[in-house]
Amino acid sequence: MTLGERILTKRKELGLSQEDLGNKLDVSRQTVYKWESDQAVPELTKLIALAKIFDVKIGWLINEEADDPESTTANAEEAYNKAAERLIKLLEESEKREKPQAKSSVFKLFTAALVIFLIFGIIKIASLEKRYRELDSTIFRNNNYIQQQISGITNSVSAMLNNYNSVTTNAEAIISGIDFSKNMISFQVSAKPKTYKEGMTAVFHVKMGGEIYDFEGTDKGGKDFNVIASVPLVDDVADISVGFISGDTSENCSISTFYDLLGATFPFYDITCPFEDWIKPDYSGFSQAYFEVDTGDMFYDYLEKFGITRPEIISMKAFLTEDGIRIADYTYDEEYSVKQNGTGSAPNEMYWHYFKRPADIKLTQGKTYVEHFIATDEYGRQLEVMYNDRDRIVEYHVK
């Protein structure tokens, strides 16, 4: 387990919320969230406090596989020096507060051992933090996405077994481009029959969003059929196959399955905490003033490898529905968002986005409430994220 996973596990064992743990440590809930998702590492003093709260040793919290010697960089050495200076100052201040008395050699030995242990922990944490920062996304935060990957592996294995005994000697499909103004995606597909017969034709099939689109292949020579297949980009999944037709006989073969197609054209947005956690016990409103949305780039590399640049998001909005009826609009607080993200943050570089909830809103027990977040890109396409009964739901509004 990583440091973040250990903090999350112990917090849940104690029945504490992220806010409860943050209050005990005098940090915000967002800070605890970043620790648990391995986006940040607690300071030394917070690590010591966490160990006391969880009733564990600091060594257990930071226990990881030994780092590669080559990964011990100048950053780790710098962290070592700073940690040593800080620990020495802490010890000196502690000694000043105590009554003047002789220190036993056993106590001094114990103190030295503790300093060495804590410095070693800081070195490991600095190295881990460097690795975490280099990741585009540190965790898949979506169970549906994980299920897609499992399904993708299963389908890939099936496709390989199918192709092994298939009617083709070579078949390939790649994404050749996306026309965002028309919301169309194009695939470059090719397939060569294992046994070619005079007059044979090939029809390529692209299944997306419940629709099947057919494209007649062109023989480019060598009995190798090719086509550029363009279809509306309305779903994450596209299944591509080919059928070789000779007379009254048709032989079909799966070529490839693509995942996360539509989702990859938007940033990954997540609502950090279901709003049910912030409803006041008497339903007189919310105990938390802001609705929080965080942004990730889970699919960024996926697009880059096809030479595709994701469209720019030009507007964001959030609102509340009661039994499906929109009852309140939230106000985006750019100044507060910049402040929470840190000095120098630009709107398009911010990780956290904050929307002000109406202070005078009244809720009714027994009603179904859902908070919605909608991001609109430069082509008018929209991504909507919401929580319903603590399940993350994503909908796309595209032409």
Structural class: alpha+beta
Strand order of the largest sheet: 12-11-15-16-17
Low-confidence stretches: 64-77, 97-104, 129-148, 160-165
- The tally of helices reads 10
User: What is the average of the pLDDT values?
Assistant: 76
Which CATH class of the largest domain? Mainly Beta
Oligomer: single chain
Largest sheet: 5 strands, antiparallel
Classify the helix fraction into a percent range.
25-40%
In CATH, the topology of the largest domain is named Immunoglobulin-like
CATH architecture field of the largest domain: Sandwich
Compute the number of strand runs.
Answer: 17
Broad shape: elongated
Q: Number of folding domains?
A: 3
What is the element string, with H for helices and E for strands?
HHHHHHHHEEEEEEEEEEHEEEHEEEE
Strand content: 25-35%
Summary, kept brief:
The protein has helices at 3-13, 18-25, 29-36, 44-54, 58-61, 74-97, 105-133, 143-164, 300-304, 334-341, and strands spanning 168-179, 184-193, 201-208, 211-216, 218-219, 225-232, 238-246, 249-258, 268-271, 290-296, 313-322, 325-329, 331-332, 352-356, 369-377, 382-388, 391-397.
Would you give an account of this structure?
With 399 residues, the protein is an alpha+beta fold. It folds into three domains: 131 residues, Orthogonal Bundle (434 Repressor (Amino-terminal Domain)), CATH 1.10.260.40; 114 residues, Immunoglobulin-like (Sandwich), CATH 2.60.40; 135 residues, Immunoglobulin-like. Helix content is 33%, strand content 30%. The chain is built from ten helices and 17 strands. The strands form four sheets. It has a five-stranded antiparallel β-sheet, with no helix packed on it. Strands 1-2-6-5 form a four-stranded antiparallel β-sheet, with no helix packed on it. A hairpin with a 5-residue loop joins strand 5 and strand 6. It starts with a helix and ends with a strand. The relative contact order is 0.09. About 12% of the residues have low confidence.
